[in-house]
Amino acid sequence: MKNTKITKKSIDSAVNQALEKTAEKGLETVWERSELQKPRCGFGEQGLCCHICYMGPCRINPKGKKPQQGVCGATAELIVARNFARMIAAGAAAHSDHGRAVAKTLLLAAESPDSGYSIKDENKLRKIAKILEVEVKDRTNEEIAKKVAEKALENFGKQEGEIAFIKNAPETRQGVWHELNIVPRGVDREIVEMMHRTSIGVDQDHRNIMLHGARTALADGWGGSMIATELQDILFGTPSPLRGQVNLGVLSEKDVNIVVHGHEPVLSEMLVHAAQEKDLINLAKSKGAKGINLAGICCTANEILIRHGLPIAGNILQQELAISTGAVEAMIVDVQCIMPSLPEIAKCYHTELITTSSKGKIEDTKYFELSEKNALKTAKKIVKEAIMNFPNREKVNIPKEKMDLIAGFSHEAINYMLGGTFRTSYVPLNDNVVNGRIKGVAGVVGCCNPKVIHDQCHVSLVEELIANNILVVQTGCSAIACAKAGFLTPESAVKYAGKGLSEVCKAVGMPPVLHSGSCVDNSRILIALSEMVKVGGLGNDISELPVAGAAPEWMSEKAISIGQYFVASGVFTVFGVGLPVGGSEIFSKHIFKEFENIFGGMWATEPDPGKMAALIIDHINKKREKLGISKAKERILYDMQMRRELEV
Ligand code: CUV
Ligand code: SF4
Fold first, then answer.
1. Domains along the chain with CATH numbers
2. What is the per-residue pLDDT across 259-284, written as a single tens digit (0 to 9) for each?
3. Mutate to test the pocket of ligand 2, among 58, 60, 82, 584 (most ligand atoms within 8 A of CB)
4. With a threshold of 0.90, does the pTM exceed it?
5. Per residue in 398-434, pLDDT tens?
6. CB-based contacts of 73: which residues, under 8 Å, 6+ apart?
7. Which atom of ligand 1 is closest in space to residue 337's alpha carbon?
8. Helices marked H in 66-131 — which ranges?
9. From the CB of 550, is ligand 1 less than 6 Å away?
10. For ligand 2, what atom is nearest to the CA of residue 200?
11. Quick one: which ligand is closest to 59's CA?
12. Shortest-distance ligand to the CA of residue 198
């Protein structure tokens, strides 16, 4: 493209540099394509466009003029509700299908030891077995794993009853769900029913649609996603804090760079192993490289970071830019958040794009079937393919930027960090919330969106929150954004956090921003919140906790499902950018206001990160006041040393 003006597209200078290069080459990226979509269809942006049947597409005039109904008679609130609910269903489907794949892999690990997969975390296996009511006595790990996998798989196709992990929620919360009759029966069932109800001429009551929307979302958060997280921990290990690095600068000039992008660690874990094979490293050397550098993009990156400390090349909007460095021998993708633009940009460099999932193919790219059975063998073939491509490298242009970070804060790790080796628990966290050193906890998650300046909302929001002594827990592309900004280091506690939070962080040696993993790992946040309730001192339900959720730069349907399960779990949740609900005041009022009386949590939308922070801080203060802990009390903070003394 000629005359592409590079206005500030990102707060990340690595991104802006890379964009200058792509512009010089005349390549289009997500930012240029986003510009070309302007002006966007206002009906669509406000959720007012319906194409559920072919009497339409129909659209409602948002200014109160005609038409105020679709051909079938659907009103604005009905159209907005159906569209929103379908986003929940699609998002829940994506996470849950990921969960299903993990459950099937666990079954494989149990049944065929030479599959390459095995049981890494025996403690977690036993813990999950207990929740799933699997007998462990006199059974081998493999026998237990087989039953656990089968029980987990049942959760998808079950027609009646309740999905198993609902039991992880506080009793009061379960009570709310029972009262509303929205406990998910089976993951697949709720998603199918959502699609049914929102097809033409079925559910015509936006409130009733959203009740099932909540049920569907809960089937994701406490179902599919939680199954994914817990079973991945069994298979690949429960994360604990470790060091890593992030940004395009992690790509190496001297090594064979393999970038894995997508979602399921079922693939990436095997690549991690393959990339460490001696003969492959020697092969790389024989081709003139120093070694093999495996890095990630998006949630797959988060998965290999939190378990192996492997570097992250960037978040969703950096996938094209990673290729544009000219240093990527192969980008290996599976499912979700993979831009269809990749083959076009890969063609301009030597990068080979490789697909690995029968669910996600790309025309004219090499496809390596990663059937779980021969995963390691396939992974080795893929790594070899990348190595063989190394001599085809031309000019390389890697931005220097990279940042250190600490990640791997599973809820078990948070327990351990705060509670110490001997008394792992959330008691110290709750104590610090009660005494006001920590004002509250915010989960800041989700995608990036070229409609807003890349990373800016994530970073500004989180900066403001930690300055106000709010501990931030992160996942997804939001965690990557804040990692690049340097928030995920213990030193950042001194630099950015308020006095109280900073003291706590220093005492236990943790950053004020905790990276908990990928999008399915938002289920870790649900469990952490449940733990906080169970420990006591902060009310009887998640909705009483001084906590909030946010997705400042969201874009995916998955984010809507996540938002809805946070809300239905009792959490006040703010989305940036905008929400496709503005076309109906009635619907907006329902999810922004009425929801609070129904679920104890509600939605909000606010594109400005400063105002978003204010909403969250106000909400947390309101909750603190209700709990009667709004005045700071002095308490003794137990550091590791003092705790050890207590033990004797
Ligand atoms: Ni699943 S869903 S852009 S990779 S967080 Fe990243 Fe995370 Fe959104 Fe996609
Ligand atoms: Fe139009 Fe109704 Fe069909 Fe939607 S379902 S496209 S509003 S006729």
1. 4-59 (no CATH), 76-236 (1.20.1270.30), 248-392 (3.40.50.2030), 428-627 (3.40.50.2030)
2. 999 999 888 999 999 999 999 999 99
3. 58
4. yes
5. 999 999 999 999 999 998 888 766 667 889 999 999 9
6. none
7. 9
8. 76-111, 122-131
9. no
10. 5
11. 2
12. 2
